[in-house]
Structures are given as structure tokens and as C-alpha cells.
Amino acid sequence: MDWDKLRIFHAVAESGSFTRASESLGLSQSAVSRQMQGLEDSLRVALFHRHARGLVLTEQGELLHRTTREVFAKLAVTESMLAESKERPTGHLRVTTTVGFGSMWLTGQIGEFLDAYPEITVSLLVADVELDLGMRQADVAIRMTPPRQSDLIQRHLFTGHFGVYCAPSYINRFGTPTALADLRNHRVISYGEQLPAPFPGINFLVDALREVDPDYQPALTINNVYGMARAVEAGVGIGGLPAFLAEERRQLVRVLPELKTPSVDAYFVYPAELRESRRVTVFRDFLLRRVAMTSF
């Protein structure tokens, strides 16, 4: 198979369009189309279903796309490692983590890392869904669950805890709950159940209330931990939050301290092929130093 045609096929398959692929490759649309026709002719199979709204891969096209994705992922790793200096780490590092941890803790720490390693640039990808490290959607991850893929290396970072918090303005309006059952008469903020939770235990407060009242419904659900913390801070209601988020907001008041709350373990995760990467090593060591100085 012709390598140049495979490179163009990969761009077309990723974008789902000859037009978008031609823009990313810097080729004319007709040139891309001719190359794909030539590839199909040489393989004697159809790789795309063509229709007015774009392209859909055939079964054979899906098989070839899986292979080209793996090849290009490995090439990206190799390119990064070849470009990386042995003496001083350089290059680009893509870090993925949850919205709450990334936007409310890591952004406050990352400046020190950039000061120490000015030749490394960082993309911080915050999302409450897991990006695929094996397919190079990111280089490293900070996750609140152990990795399920066997080819990923993990390092335990910290054990985080939860608490129940509200703002002084909320207490002034609605009073302070003194028992779990009291929360049935308060406005509780929850992560919600429409999307997968970013880490286990995020809805512990509602789960506990439903042991008292199986029909209990929170007053407000927000599918974003940062949004929950902001709503609690604004006096909207009472929320179960990771302690490190609440402790950074010193004006928040912890209530029901005797309530049993869950804990969650955080891990630094990266693909095995990056075990020798200096960028990954120095970032891991930086995180270990910073989490050791933080109460989670």
C-alpha cells in the first residue's frame, strides 16, 4: 500500500470529508479524491460510502482506519521522543483531567511548572469523560479512578475526601442543618444522574438522603463539579463537594461534619511507550511535590 495514499486516507477518515481533509493537508479536493480512488482501485475494495452529506466508512474502510490510527499514534509518540532533549525536557505535553480538579486546582499550580520548564508547552484538557491515551487523544491523565487499560502506567497521587458545605449567606436565609434528615427541608445541589460521574461518590449526599426518603429529589443538579462549587459559593444551596475545592473557598462553611463521606483515589496515568519521556517524568514529579503540600 502506498504510504502517501494511506496518509491522505487517514486524514479523510478522521474528518469524514474530502473538503476538510484537503484543507488540513494543503491539497486540492480533486487531488484528494483522485488519491482515494487510486487507493480503492489498488486494494480492489470500496473504502467509503459517498453521499450528499459526506462520507461513511465501509467495513473494509473501518478496518484500514483502525490500522492507520494505530500507526499515526505510534508515529506521534516517536516524533515527540526524537524531538525531546536528553539534557533538558522540551516539547508539548497534553494533560487531561476532570473539570473540577483541572479548573480549580491544577490551573493554580501549573504556572510553577511552566516557570521551571519554560521549554515545555502544556495543553490542559478538562473533561468529565476519559480521553483515550492509547489513541493519543492526550499524553497523560490525572484520573479519579484506576485505569482499565493494561498498557497504561499508573502512579497514585492522593486520596481525596468529601464534605457537606454551604455559604454563610445560605445559612442566614435558611439556617444550619444539624442532622441529615434536616436536609429534606433545604436546597441540596447534586451532580445529577444524566451523565457518568467524573469519580465515584460524587452524589453521596443525595444517596444518603434517599436512605431516609427513597423519593427524595435535589433542588438543583449540575453536571459539572466546578458549577456545583460556584452555586454553593453563591448561596444557592448545600452541596457535597471534594474537600480541596471547598477548603480553597475559605468562606464556605462545613456542615454535618459527623456524616460519613466517601473518599476517592487519584492517579497519574500515561502510556507505557512514554515511560522514558522526560516531559512526562518531570511533570509527574512536579505533581507529586505539589499534592504532598495540599490537604485533600
Would you mind describing this structure in some detail?
The protein has 296 residues and is α/β, with parallel strands linked by helices. It is 42% helix and 21% strand. It has ten helices and eleven strands. The strands form two sheets. Strands 3, 4, 5, 6, 7, 8, 9, 10 and 11 form a nine-stranded mixed sheet that branches. It starts with a helix and ends with a helix.
Indicate the low-confidence ranges by residue numbers.
none
Order of helices and strands: HHHEEHEHEEEHEHEHEHEEH
CATH top level label of the largest domain: Alpha Beta
Largest sheet: 9 strands, mixed
CATH topology name of the largest domain, in short, is D-Maltodextrin-Binding Protein, domain 2
Mean pLDDT figure: 89
> Care to count the β-strands?
11
**CATH homologous superfamily identity of the largest domain:** Periplasmic binding protein-like II
- How large is the share of residues in beta strands? 15-25%
Overall helicity: 40-55%
Question: Helical segment tally?
Answer: 10
How many structural domains are formed by the residues? 3
Provide the gyration radius in Å. 24 Å
Tell the overall outline. elongated
CATH architecture descriptor text of the largest domain: 3-Layer(aba) Sandwich
Based on secondary structure, the structural category is alpha/beta
Q: Termini, distance in Å?
A: 53 Å
